[in-house]
């Protein structure tokens, strides 16, 4: 048996572009969080916040790369990873704004 054929039309291209737009948004948020932590925190807390932002951003890059590469597979399996990344960003932003 051969592998299933992707759906016709531009659906795959639109999906890949939407994942890339999502990565651009995540990158912008990461840069804003990094700047916020660098301006408002000093020393070890700033380094820890920058490392956390970099780690979550790297995970988003990996997830986006994987989704763009495997666009023919259902996105439902990646939903927990995406929700986790969003929650991590929200938690980091909350901690930074409260400090």
TrEMBL record:
Residues 9-68 form the DUF202 domain. Keywords: Membrane, Transmembrane, Transmembrane helix. It is found in: Endomembrane system. The keyword Transcription does not apply. The chain crosses the membrane at residues 21-38, 44-63, 75-98. InterPro entries: DUF202, TAT_signal. This is DUF202 domain-containing protein. It comes from Dactylosporangium darangshiense.
């Amino acid at each position: 048996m051969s592998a299933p054929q992707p759906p016709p039309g531009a659906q795959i291209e639109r999906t890949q572009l939407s994942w890339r737009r999502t990565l651009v948004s995540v990158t912008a948020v990461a840069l804003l969080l990094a700047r916020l932590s660098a301006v408002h925190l000093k020393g070890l807390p700033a380094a820890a916040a920058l490392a956390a932002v970099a780690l979550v951003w790297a995970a988003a890059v990996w997830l986006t790369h994987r989704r763009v590469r495997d666009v023919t597979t259902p996105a439902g399996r990646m939903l927990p990873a995406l929700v986790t990344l969003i929650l991590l960003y929200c938690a980091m932003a909350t901690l930074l704004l409260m400090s």
